Amino acid sequence: MRVLGIDCGSRITGYGVIDTQGSQCILIRCGAIRSKPSDPLAIRLRSIYSGILEIINDARPQAAAFENLFYAANVQSALKLAHVRGVSMFAAAEANLPVFEYSPLEVKSAVTGYGRAEKNQVQQMVCSLLKLESAPEPYDASDALAVAICHAHTHL
């Protein structure tokens, strides 16, 4: 199964695509879709949507996995993040991908065995599980891979 993991953010949206065979996961690609903070929100959302569609068209995943919204510094941040999640999920749904959501606790537990793990611990375990020589950058990419790994481990 090929899984697309997405870590939504209004400035940086991380993505990670993995192949799974049983409990083994293999990195296909990862990275980040960056939008300019100076651009209006609608332009940033279009950029994120287009970026996700491009990844889906190139990588051909069979499922998309997202981390649930759990925290925002303020209401404005929460609303922007909700918009990003909306266009990201819509892109996946428009491509006829089944969409799955996981809590941060589920993602961290699936990857590190500890639901309150720090970002660097998640990144290190993503490297270990995918047998990578260097850590995916930025953290948004490793977080997206963690979401994809969580889905793979949940749907064995």
Task: Explain what this protein looks like in three dimensions.
The chain is globular. The chain has a single domain, classed as Ribonuclease H-like superfamily/Ribonuclease H (Nucleotidyltransferase, domain 5, 2-Layer Sandwich). It has a five-stranded mixed sheet. The protein has helices spanning 41-59, 75-94, 104-112, 119-130, 139-154, and strands spanning 2-7, 12-21, 24-34, 63-67, 99-102. It is α/β, with parallel strands linked by helices. α2 links the parallel β4 (63-67) and β5.
Q: Note poorly predicted spans.
A: none
CATH class: Alpha Beta
Number of domains: 1
- Give the neighbour order of strands across the main sheet: 3-2-1-4-5
Number of helices: 5
CATH architecture: 2-Layer Sandwich
Mind summarizing the main beta sheet? 5 strands, mixed
Q: What number is the mean pLDDT?
A: 94
- The helix-and-strand class reads alpha/beta
Shape: globular
Radius of gyration equals: 14 Å
CATH topology: Nucleotidyltransferase, domain 5
Order of helices and strands: EEEHEHEHHH
DSSP, total strands = 5
Instruction: Indicate the proportion of strand residues.
Output: 15-25%
Helix fraction? 40-55%
Report the end-to-end length measured between terminal Cα atoms.
10 Å
Report the CATH superfamily.
Answer: Ribonuclease H-like superfamily/Ribonuclease H
Oligomer kind: single chain
